[in-house]
Specification:
Number of helices: 4
Strand content: under 5%
Oligomer: single chain
Distance between the termini: 36 Å
Helix content: over 70%
Order of helices and strands: HHHH
Structural class: mainly alpha
Number of strands: 0
């Protein structure tokens, strides 16, 4: 039951990432593309492509979580850590590129995102080392 709840969390976070990805590439296109029609077409095409990628992540995470029930938490922490890293990039890279001012709460939120993502990935990789058994 817990695995399905956490899979729903992964699905929800993937949809949030899809929306942040759209915001990210629109901000980047505003910086580099001058023609509105080009931006409009690229927005539609990229959103369709990213929607298929998000659907693939949702299906992959379902299969990935179900494949190994005893290491479910390790798998969940790896996927969530990677999603948090991608979320950080989509959220803060445009701000860093244009050199906009960030107040201390935005900086603190970004640092916490990176810290939590790093902890989740480190826990996942640490547990993976202890669970691997070399057989010959």
């Amino acid at each position: 039951m817990v695995s399905y709840i956490l899979w729903l969390f992964t699905c929800s976070f993937t949809i949030v990432l899809l929306l942040y990805a759209r915001s990210f590439y629109l901000k980047m296109m505003i910086l580099f593309v001058n023609d509105f029609n080009t931006i409009n077409i690229l927005d539609k095409v990229l959103f369709i492509i990213l929607s298929f990628v998000a659907l693939g992540v949702i299906v992959f995470s379902d299969v990935y979580y179900k494949r190994d029930k005893k290491n479910f938490w390790r798998r969940f922490s790896l996927v969530t850590g990677i999603q948090l890293l991608v979320f950080f990039v989509f959220q803060y890279l445009p701000t860093i590129i244009i050199g906009a001012y960030m107040n201390w709460t935005e900086v603190l939120a970004g640092v916490l995102e990176l810290l939590i993502a790093g902890i989740l990935i480190a826990i996942s990789l640490k547990d993976k080392k202890h669970n691997n058994v070399v057989t010959q």
